[in-house]
Design goal:
heterodimer, A: 67 residues, mainly alpha, 3 helices, flat, B: 673 residues, globular
Chain lengths: 67, 673
């Protein structure tokens, strides 16, 4: 069961990162651990922020898709 | 002692087997001269080459050349912010990186290159990826990871100086413009006069907008769920497309000429890249990415199940440069035509983008940098297989411009049979009927050929001939979808680049939040690629003929720039003993691209040389003649002007790459002093 969960969780994470969406839980956990007490974006804010950055966060940073 | 010997055996015996199988398969591919050969031989040869290359060359570069250090803290660990810098599992990151680098390029180039037979393309894809493409991707990823995830432009600036940094930026922008024009041209060529295809591609827009609204307001974060909804929508659009195409009202309403589609695409590109990304771009990126991965996997499984015979000869007479698909000799033009899949400079931008900021451990770099490129190369091999399983007569009817084969199936069958690839008008009509199109003649650009090939393979696995038309339009949709994503995303990136470059001179343009600056820069970007697109659509030789080589040259010149930077870094790291690892592919790329660039400018054959073509039209113009496709004196002047612009662009690319090599040599000399 553990293995199956790990595989399906990994597959979902891979699929999300393929479209440029990093893991929200990892982000939230990091914010809590590294910057306790500071504001954490909600999941919706997080997604909007990532979509905006993923497609044109500056001249070269936005190249997320190749030919 | 015995244990050591046993370990030795276990370490080496499997590799000896892989090498042996690979060598035998490659031998069969290269030396077989019978009727046909099974595609499986190529697949097996490719997989064995990749495994061996990764194990021996990839890891050699990692351990000996670069001195990969698993104990060194990567930027993802040091600067972890949960957003850009996130230590990421290596398999997850491999998926991300592969999805980012693999696009339409490896699917189109090999299809065009098949005009010279399957063998030259196969050998170049394999040799190119092992010694050039994967090396470039890996080195740039490594260097960027060691430099806090800096981008290629920043790396060139910091390693080589400000002037080369600016030159590289101008070069990258020009390459971007050509890339977008060529990709847009592929879509236009695939959709022209095809109501079924046009309807399905149009349908993706409302579907994507619905997905955007759904995932922003209704159920945020449910990417899998919304993608599934979108996928169902797409499949319905394909099924519905057949009725739309055959309807006497809707059929003509969705039938557009290439020119009309080009203008629509230009307008669409402008609107799509100023809209908020969550509304159209991001949701469509979900669809195109998942569809891309799914289709690649389906094609691989299809080839394994069907094990089709390759009907294209190993080598065709067109290696002498007289082929209808692209002009020019095997050297250098085959190596230019297949860029993506063998070596693609564009990857240096992706490898210095988001991926280096997520590498958890340096030990993961070979798999992600070198490995993902091998995977893309495999996609190119599959595209070559899909084109080569077609009857060569069908292949040439699909890929030859109307100027050479006429516009009726009887003319086309006569012309193609005359080249030695026997085909009858009935067979051409039959194929068109099977894939649900009015005609398959002169559907240049690679996408329709790949779609017919894929439909052949997939319908043999699932559905039989009755499903041919579905699979054909599925393949067209899948290609159009991710090309359109690249077009919007690329237009946005080009816009930021223009703002960055022009902002140096006109400060207010730099403000990316300003609506005026945004619209002005977007308009500049769109008119840049739109201009080349329109020129390509009206070209009597199909446009791909002119623009694909320019794209190939520019893409590989970017690879040469990246490899120059990598060479400088190797010298800086005092690893000059191993500098041949980058100098070898660099020299080859310089020889190929400079020769090809020179020939595109100065070749005496008007089919190859832009200036000779301009001279031909100028002379005719002076005599008061009008040459097709021009219909008036004004259009004659336009053709001549286009030739000069294309020649100028070629000169620009060559100047940029020569300048970069010069600055690279200077930086190396400084590093050694």
């Amino acid at each position: 069961m553990r293995l199956r969960e790990a595989i399906s969780g990994g597959a979902a994470r891979t699929a999300r990162l393929m479209v440029g969406v990093p893991d929200y839980d990892t982000y939230a956990a990091h914010r809590q651990a590294a910057h306790p007490g500071e504001p954490v974006m909600s999941q919706a804010e997080f997604l909007a922020d990532r979509a905006e950055k993923g497609f044109g966060g500056g001249a070269e940073g936005g190249i997320s898709r190749c030919c | 002692m015995a244990a050591a010997a046993q370990r030795l055996v276990w370490n080496w015996v499997p590799w000896a087997l892989v090498a042996l199988v690979g060598a035998s398969a490659l031998g069969v591919v290269a030396l077989h001269r019978g009727e046909t050969i099974n595609a499986l031989w190529i697949v097996v040869a490719a997989v064995c080459v990749y495994l061996t290359a990764y194990r021996f060359y990839g890891l050699f570069i990692a351990r000996r050349v670069l001195g990969i250090d698993p104990t060194r803290r990567t930027p993802a660990v040091r600067r972890n912010d949960g957003l850009d810098y996130v230590p990421t599992n290596r398999y997850v990151l491999f998926g991300h990186h592969f999805a980012a680098i693999a696009g339409a390029g490896p699917l189109v180039g090999p299809v065009l290159a098949a005009q010279m037979g399957y063998l030259p393309g196969t050998l170049w894809i394999l040799a190119g990826v092992v010694f050039a493409g994967a090396v470039q991707d890996f080195l740039v990823l490594f260097i960027s990871t060691r430099r806090d995830g800096r981008s290629l432009g920043e790396l060139i600036r910091t390693e080589m100086g400000t002037v080369p940094g600016v030159i590289a930026m101008v070069g990258i922008l020009a390459i971007m413009i050509i890339l977008l024009a060529v990709l847009a041209l592929v879509v236009v060529k695939a959709l022209a006069d095809s109501p079924w295809g046009t309807f399905t591609v149009f349908a993706t827009m409302p579907i994507a907008v619905f997905m955007g609204i759904y995932s922003r307001y209704i159920r945020p974060g449910r990417i899998g769920e919304v993608s599934l909804i979108g996928f169902v929508g797409l499949m319905l659009a394909i099924v519905l497309g057949e009725d739309v195409a055959s309807s006497p009202i809707w059929g003509p309403a969705f039938t557009f000429s290439g020119e009309a589609l080009a203008l629509m695409l230009i307008g669409y590109g402008f609107i799509a890249s100023v809209l908020p990304v969550w509304l159209l771009l991001a949701p469509r990126d979900y669809l195109s990415t998942f569809l891309k991965i799914g289709t690649i996997v389906a094609l691989a499984i299809g080839i394994l199940i069907v094990r089709p015979e390759l009907r294209m000869p190993a080598v065709t007479p067109f290696i002498d440069g007289t082929g209808p698909v692209f002009a020019g000799n095997l050297f250098p033009f085959l190596f230019i035509t297949i860029a993506c899949g063998a070596v693609s400079g564009f990857h240096s931008l992706v490898s210095s983008g988001t991926t280096p900021k997520m590498v958890e451990n340096e030990a993961h770099l070979p798999m992600i940098g070198y490995g993902a490129m091998l995977m893309e190369s495999f996609v190119a091999i599959m595209a070559l297989v899909a084109a080569s399983v077609l009857d060569p007569g069908v292949y040439f009817a699909l890929n030859s411009p109307a100027a050479l084969i006429g516009t009726t199936t009887s003319e086309a069958a006569l012309a193609v049979s005359g080249w030695g690839f026997t085909i009858t008008p009935v067979m051409l009509d039959q194929v068109a009927g099977q894939v649900g199109e009015a005609t398959i003649l002169s559907r240049t650009g690679g996408a329709p050929t790949l779609a017919v090939g894929m439909a052949n393979i997939l319908s043999s696995a699932i559905g039989g001939p009755a499903m041919m038309a579905f699979w054909y339009h599925f393949a067209i949709l899948f290609e159009a979808l991710f090309i359109l994503t690249t077009v919007d995303a690329g237009t946005r990136v080009a816009r930021f680049m223009i703002q960055d470059l022009l902002g140096t001179f006109v400060a207010p343009l730099k403000d990316t939040k300003s609506w005026t600056a945004n619209v002005a820069a977007t308009a500049l970007a769109v008119s840049g690629w739109g201009w080349f697109l329109y020129q390509g659509v009206t070209d009597p030789l199909g446009g791909i003929n002119t623009l694909w080589p320019l794209f190939g040259i520019s893409n590989q010149m970017l690879a040469a720039i990246a490899l120059t930077m990598a060479t400088v870094v190797l010298f800086r790291m005092k690893r000059e003993r191993y500098a041949w690892v980058t100098l070898l592919p660099l020299s080859w790329l310089l020889i190929c691209t400079l020769t090809a660039g020179w020939q595109k400018m100065f070749h005496s054959d008007p089919k190859i040389g832009f200036l000779a073509h301009a001279a031909k039209y100028s002379d005719a113009f002076a005599r008061g003649e009008i040459l097709a496709p021009a219909k008036s004196a004004g259009e004659m002047r336009q053709v001549i002007f286009n030739d000069y612009v294309n020649a100028g662009l070629c000169a620009l690319f060559m100047t940029v790459v020569v300048a970069m090599v010069f600055y690279g040599a200077k930086a190396i000399a400084a590093a050694r002093a």
